[in-house]
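#lab-general

N.A. 3:47 PM
ok so I finally got the sequence cleaned up, no stray characters, all 347 residues accounted for. can someone with queue access submit it? mine expired

B.Y. 3:52 PM
send it over

N.A. 3:53 PM
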Amino acid sequence: MIIWVNGTFGAGKSSACRELVELLPGSTLFDPEQVGDALRRILPAHRLAEVRDFQDLPAWRRLVPEVAAAVLAEVPGTLVVPMTLLREDYRDEIFGALAARGLTVHHFVLHAEETILRERIAHSEEYPGDPEASEQCRRWRFAKLPAYQRAQSWLHRDARVLETGGLTPLQVARTLAALVKEGAGHCPIVRAADSADDTVAAAVLFFDEDDRVLLVDPVYKPDWEFPGGVVERGEAPTLAAVREAAEELGLNLAPEALRLLAVDWEPRSGVRRGGMRLVYDGGHLTAGQRAALRLPPDELRDWRFVTLGESRGLLSAGRYRRLAVALEARGVGAPRYLEAGRPAAQG
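B.Y. 4:20 PM
back already:
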């Protein structure tokens, strides 16, 4: 189990988590900032100069779940993680990877009013004996406060918020321990454990009266997606598409109503599995069907209809290419075969 304690600088994460480890027998403290420190020592200066924060490094976001899982393999129990995450797409990426490894996450946000945060930051001494370094750290933390204000809209929706203005670190830790016992901060992300095998997946494209395509926002990854999922063992891809449409959107489809648009071979990328990806045309959704759409909260956060141009900023590059070709195939009435989102040589 992982207890992820979020919140901006000055909220008291580190001190509360140190107390929490003392309260939870068998627990271990893991600070992902140490992963960032390691990357600062490993990566060349020109790469580090390209990012403003180590969280912007894809390597950091991949390594944090890997290290967390490795630590729990060495010392099973509870991992207490004090770490600020203010970007929702980074949260999706990291928590999704943790869920894929079968790790339960409890997500909390320690909150205090800005006047309290500023006072705490002003009196912090990160580097005792080095006033210049401490002052630079304080300026950096002050600069992060606006980002926290902007992030509150999704943070307070995603996590259990704990007001810390009048609490000592020990009181915060005791409250966190009680909330964990109640399951109050549990993040119900459902993901199957990762596998070394490639997969077959089926997706369905739905359209509104303006021929915009429906995309969904998963809670376990940063990019938007097509409705659909992995074909189960012994299951026909068309039936998998029907099943996923029912599970993810509450739509009841007839298999014979689906029309194949594209088959795309997707190569493995890092820990993400590859395999064959089938894209079907599910047709237009009526106003009544759109109003009746129901999303599983542990898998999908939102849905929207978008144009192809609008989808470019929501989909990964490979999925954007797959969608573009699928829409072309829909227009001409003939399915297309792709490899890595691009038409493959045929004939």
